[in-house]
Fold this protein.
Amino acid sequence: MKETISIRVNGRQHNIQVDDAKTPLLYILRNQLALNGPKFGCGQGQCSACLILLDGQPVSSCMIPASTAAGKEIVTIEGLAKDKNLHPVQEAFVEHQAAQCGYCLNGMVIAAVAILSEDPDPGEEVINQGMQRVLCRCGVHNRVKKAIDTAAKSLSR
Amino acid sequence: MEKVVSSARRKFLKRSGSLVIGIPFLPGCLSSTEGARTNVEPLQRDLDPTFVKAWLEILKDGTIRIFTGKMELGQGISVAVAQVAAEELNTDINKVSVRLAETEVTPDEGFTVGSNSIETSAMSIRYAAATAREQLLQLAAKQLKVTASDLHVKDGMVYQKGGKTISFYMLLDGKQLDVALNRKAKIKPKNQRQWVGKPIPRKELELMVRGEQVFIQDLRFEGMVHARIVRPASYHATLKKVNEDALRIAVPGIHKLVVNGSFIGLIAADEYDAVKGQAYLKKNTQWSVKHQLRVGESLQQQIEALPNEQESAIEKGNAFQPSKETIKATYFKPYIMHGSIGPSCALAIFKDGKLTIWSHSQGVYPLRKAISALVGLTDEQVHIKGVPGAGCYGHNGADDVAADVAILAMAYPGKHIRLQWSRSDEHGWEPFGSAMIMSLQAKLNSVGKISDWYGEIWSDTHTARPRAASNLLAAQYLSEPLTPQPPGWKGGSYRNAAPYYHIPNVNIDIRSFKGPLRTSALRSLGAYANIFALESFMDELAEKAGKDPVTFRIMNSTDERSVAVLERLRDITSKDTLSDGEGVGYGFTRYGNGAAYCSVAAKLTVTVNGEIKLRKLWAVIDAGEVINLDGLKNQTEGGMIQAASWTLKEAVKYDETHVTSLNWNSYPILRFTEIPEVHVTVIDRPSEQPVGAGEAAQGPTAAAIANAVYQASGKRIRSLPIPKIPS
């Protein structure tokens, strides 16, 4: 008994058929829409590897049942670049080489975009609080903070 | 199965199985050539590492393809080997692509461990490229009938001064160079270098921020199915009963349940069905739990009470004679975990008698040997392709998940199976870094220098990599179980146990025990705990000698490179001012007593409540000749942050049954609000051998923090972690 769920991802409408409407959005995005950005990290909303923007808010897609996402606007890291041009946050992460293994990069970039859309000139405290949910094990946090600073300047130009 | 809108479907099909494994440097050339091979038979290659062609190939489009037997772990080895090759062949780095570890395709370079990929793989590639350049010039001289000294190479071409040109590819007539690698080939002079030593960015970051396929977790194949494993209730549990009928009623999407002894795996077309099946069986499977873990006493007490095998590891000068002047201190480090952000993952298909595995293992060749023995195939029947996973920092679940999926593939042939470990699989079953006790004694001479040193190191093994099938986790739970090999090499336990100072008499004994938890290699092995102890003890000795900590280290050093990293660090930190409750502490190592020199300083505040706020970490590192400046800095910054997390927060917890640190709430690591500033200064020594640096900062960071706590609070903490100061 398949159920059809209508979701909007990166500006495009998708009618997804699922066996179980409780299927976490993460699996829908990765397996049905073949998106790589949101990563499986913990499945418990603790690490933010799977972060997406749901109606502009950063949420862990492993914790969102597909049915809850119906009718909402979803943006993944794949939807940030405009054609070939990277989003200023993406650009700044590349510029600062703000990664080692890069597995947490999805959550870092999405959380940073969310911070800057709320506060175009965030101080260190706002950045830290906004990024607190995203775990990194390689230890590139300081590079991430520099990248967010650079992106903030570039966005305000 | 699922109906997908057409555009996404097309994208899906286009991407199926076409992961780019090589690290391409041009966004335009990312697609087919390298990646298409994920689906086809491997290249027929001659892999004799003493020949140039094992390491590099000249391609028709003028690009150079490098083959490294090492794995990209986020340490940036791909760009480093591209740099040395581009340098020697005088080629734009964008014309160099890199193929990572793959059986039958790249040379067998064992495991990607010990921070030695620069010393081994990159140096082989450097000389292979230099040999290639010499050979190509000679060939061109012959063909163009000119002298080789009138020729030079650039971007895949040979040029004659003001005259003829010919491409490498044409020169070789489409073949590869069939010459021995010359370890004495002339290397490009340092003052002419264009790529080596520069902070060349890693281009794969752009792929990552675009959400392109980079990781093993992103591999997809047509008709691929999803698997999960149900681990036993404890290390020594055996399966009593699994109810397959009930499982199929609860989760009808399960295609296959594989039960072999106490090993349970399940397969479904839909990933969420596999997740639900795993959750169902975790709750509803009966196990017989045979051995209970001991709790109720401190881990340190427990280790001291365990049987152990004592042996002398280092004997230099006279045996240690305790006297009333002997200074003693004992230090402790608990079990800590790798804690990869992406739980381990592997894919496999068994088809036409051949088992193909995609793995983020650190050693595809040793893993192939272990897996072929485990599943009863010949080495030739097993092909393993290395694909990057999340950072592993040592021997995590990467090999075990590959063995798991191999067992499932043999039981369910013909389909690509993707096995994703859960967070609790990884936290609960990865081999941890061993708990250790370091009991140290020393004597000072009349001028305050160290004359005698004795260390007694208690440790479980730091080396249980899959050199044999029995070291693969699943092997212990099959119906015909294999018993893990007793640990052989014990060098990990006393790595950096002997001080890298000038001390006439040094004796180190190790006491090897088998502790309650599974252990293997974690970044820097025993060096993290040994340097924490040794460099904490150095501060204690400095105080007895009436010297400041840095001066005391320098006066006990005779290696000028040690002195240089210490003096530079003192200069840098002397510019910083301290407020009330703040302290600065220092730590030093020469990693493995033969690789990078690294000094670290920590500045922190101890609040009136005993809370520790880590403010800043500085490092000065000398890794010989610098290959990639930004890569070296990044590794050192990250090493300090990770070590700070270990030192301030981390200890694996367990109860009578099993590990209880099963997620990031029960095993917290440093988050953004706790991250200190980091500053890394690099001393480049172009005339010294380049050495790996990825593990150098771990130990000195721990000691610097403990020493800073002492400076700030007067409390000497000898037991890790140090979440706060006991009142």
